[in-house]
Write a structure and sequence with these properties.
Mean pLDDT: 86
InterPro entries: BCAA_transport, Leu-bd, Peripla_BP_I
Radius of gyration: 20 Å
Protein name: ABC transporter permease
Shape: globular
Pfam families: Peripla_BP_6
Order of helices and strands: HEHEHEHEEHEHEHEHEHHEHHHEEHE
Organism: Tistrella bauzanensis
Low-confidence stretches: 1-17, 20-39, 379-394
Keywords: Amino-acid transport, Signal, Transport
Strand order of the largest sheet: 7-6-8-9-10-13
Length: about 400
Amino acid sequence: MKMQKDGASASKRRDLTCRLFAAAAMTVSAVGLTAAPAAAQISGDVVKIGIVNDQSGPLSDLAGPGSVVAARLALEDFKAMTPSLNVQVVSADHQNKADIGVEVVRRWYEADGVDMVVDVGNSAVALAVQSIARDQKKLVIYAAVGTTDITGSQCSPTGLAWLHDNYNLVSGPIRKLVAQGQDKWFFIAADYAFGQNMVKESQSALAAAGGTSMGAVFHPLGNTDYASFLLQAQASGADVVAFANAGSQLVTSMKQWNEFGMNGGPQRAVAELMFLTDIHGMGLETAQGLTGVTAWYWDLNDETRAFAKRFFDLHGAMPTAPQASVYSSVLHYLKAVAATGTDETNAVVAEMRATPVDDFYAPGATLRADNKLVHDFSGDVPPDVEKGSADVAG
């Protein structure tokens, strides 16, 4: 399963503007590279990479400090190939607040000489950061941002999506389950840009597949009591209850789903965004029967297992898909800097686009004109998840 499929007309329309915008930026970049190769240089003689994400809140387990570890492993591998390039990694906690994220990133770009920001995670923070990066003509790579607005209505030639988006996450499970007759859906979603956009994309995909939305309810970020939301879902008459939340919110939702006995009822639970840490957090018994999609899993092959061992030795847990995405995006970025001899954004992005990804995360993947990395999702159900009867659709 590819990260993006071009068959959906709605997706094509949504991406058209960004494709044209990115294509224009690529043309300008190519002209600049041809006209002035002698001017290529590293600003301040150091490449600075900033990791901003939730370091302590509900999304911290799936990325957080582990993303910093992943970036440092990428730097370690890059330095083995190119020891002469001076690279620094800095990090900050945006606390899932857009104003804090903007303050951090603006300071990094304007005062601290940061060349590239990576991860971000929270969609509301990402949309705010996107504007800063566009204005500053600086690169930002989203390791795990769901909202399709990042590469749609709010697209930027300097904003790259490396893992997934909400259209990609919801379209497969919806088509699969509607075809099986489970065509009435109810949504429980986080009440910020990510959850709102995921419900919108879900309802559009559901209508296209011939299904029906029975309603949606939205809860605050970091909510801990889902009783009223679950009761509304139960009363909706839906075949499927889809959770458009993540991290500890999804874990708590599913624990309460089981406490209310809904796991033994007629409705099917779908996690529209789920990570390895979520399954660990809820336990296999609670995760039993849960359907979801994953973009990457650490136990896929010898290369992913080798990285996972290195990561575990430093972090004490196996890497999630967002953390592997951080490793991949940082390494690909640094390779492009080394190849061009500059950290100038347009030149580096042009090189990143021209060169396929070469790592354990997305071998052979390419950066599309709308700034989405096109790569395979995991095709196999992870063995330890399969034993717990969780359904992870690849």
